[in-house]
Amino acid sequence: MPAVYHACYLDYRVRSPASLTADVLTSVIAREHTLVAHNLTQIVSVFKQATSHSSAAACLEHLATIDPTTRVVLFIDMPPREPAFNQVPKDALHGPSLLQRIRSTSSLPKCLFPVALVDDEEAEMANYVDLGAIDVIHRIMQEPRIRGILVQLYRDTCRILPHGTYKAGWICGSMSTSIGPDEERLIESLFHVMFFDQTPSADPLVVTPLLLAHEREAYLQSIIGDWDFPANKLTDDELTQCAYYIFQHSFTMPEVQHLILSPDDLQHFISVLRASYQSRNPYHNFRHVVDVLQATFSFLLSMQVLPPYYTRSTLPQQEGISASSLARILDPVDALVLLVAAIGHDVGHPGVTNAFLIASRSPLARLYNDRSVLESFHCAAFNQILARYWPIMQEKNIKDLIIDAVLATDMALHFDYMRKWDSILLDGEILVADDETENARRKRLLCSTLIKCADISNVARRLDISTHWGTALTQEFKKMSDLEERLGMKNPAATQPDISMRRPTKVLSQDEKEMVALAKSQLFFINAFAGPLFETVKLVVPELRYTADQISNNKHTWEKRLAELSEFT
Ligand SMILES: [Zn+2]
């Protein structure tokens, strides 16, 4: 599927005008001026494809050849404010004259959005906007700024559609049916996540004090280190407080003092995240991410990457890190960053799957070329939140680790991660790493794997807690399935046969039918994904073996229940 927006980059320093994609980027930029190489890299990382031009004439020629309905963002490197004599290009159409020409030429694409690249955005903004530029940004381009422009364009496209007919909404792309108020609110809230922190003067979030009794606080402190953490029984205020205690414990490490937030700022950060999750999602809501945060916290405690947390913990007591464990390659900064990634990994989740977004041709899917759509969206939205509420987390190494961890939660990539571990293990033993690069690679893989494990740790929790999560996820799928039906997206052949249609020897009650369906889905998920993953983790980090053991217990119980009920079906 082609990208919705096409990008053109015009800069007289371009040495070899080219059509660019990520595949050819490295070879093309090797020949280019440093600034051009940098800018093209930033553009391709957002648009996936682009063209570069060294003269306005060549650029206009190219624009005249493309489909007039294509939306084009044209980045124009404007003349320096005080050019040295050898910096002035010999192109009559360079800079402002090109903007004027674009306004007066009818043969160009109807949706052509020029962006001026300058040295001083504030000083030069008015000139270029008056001439038709939709935005004015710094000459040294930065990916988040480019992404912001693209997202703004999407928002404007949606806004101009009549109310109630979000044919080009974020969730459903080209559906002929208009969608209901619930979905409209959902789309609005996605916008909220993407944009509420872009107006520095207005913070729409008022942090209301949490309603917690004193005894309750003590109780929460006593359970956050517990593997039987009952997130399903806690209110959102209590979950907020648990997240606060978890971060506060990690803040006690001397090695992370340069990264920590004050208590007020931490409370604010958690409240902002809480507001950016959809409470109407039965599964992908604030409760899920606090549960993932707590699972990550438990793993890091067991691995002794975090200092001991003394509670009535059901975490098995560890003697010390075993010599073979990869736990020793993580440091305190990794631990804190993983906790941050855990609580932000599903920001703005709309309660539908990637498959749904792709099938409905949602602009969100097109924006990310159908690849890891939600996870890419979570990254973009979470980075905006971090930029404002925890800016030091934007440091290159930290940001990279967060992005890796969030993208790793795409289950479509699950087997890629399993293969990566296969290349590190031989007969259950970890191969010796031959150099620092290999060690760094393992560290990143381990970090991503820990978040993956935490994200699917429901099946590794005590059975009653595990059952709660399984039921919540089933409810979310049911809601999505209803939406698919309303939108006419259902393929009848793909519908699961209803077990009540078979010839039963005993009619199952509704509860029993649901139990059979739940047992089957739990067993499928354990056998296909969670079981092998946690077994692998047990080999590389033996301190986490209790998770694989619990999965194996749960599996036997589900098999037994299914066998009992299946006798009647
Ligand atoms: Zn998740």
Automatic annotation (TrEMBL):
Enzyme class: hydrolase
The name this protein goes by in its record: Phosphodiesterase
Pfam (any one): PDEase_I
Domain PDEase positions: 207-565
Family per record: Belongs to the cyclic nucleotide phosphodiesterase family.
Organism the protein comes from: Lipomyces starkeyi NRRL Y-11557
InterPro entries documented for this protein: HD/PDEase_dom (IPR003607), PDEase_catalytic_dom (IPR002073), PDEase_catalytic_dom_sf (IPR036971), PDEase_CS (IPR023174)
SUPFAM superfamilies recorded: HD-domain/PDEase-like
GO MF entries: 3',5'-cyclic-nucleotide phosphodiesterase activity; metal ion binding
Reported cofactor(s): a divalent metal cation
Domain of life, per lineage: Eukaryota
Cofactor binding comment, as recorded: Binds 2 divalent metal cations per subunit. Site 1 may preferentially bind zinc ions, while site 2 has a preference for magnesium and/or manganese ions.
Keyword Hydrolase: yes
Keyword line: Hydrolase, Metal-binding
EC number: 3.1.4.-
PANTHER family found in the cross-reference section: CYCLIC NUCLEOTIDE PHOSPHODIESTERASE
Keyword Hydrolase attached: yes
GO biological process per UniProt: signal transduction
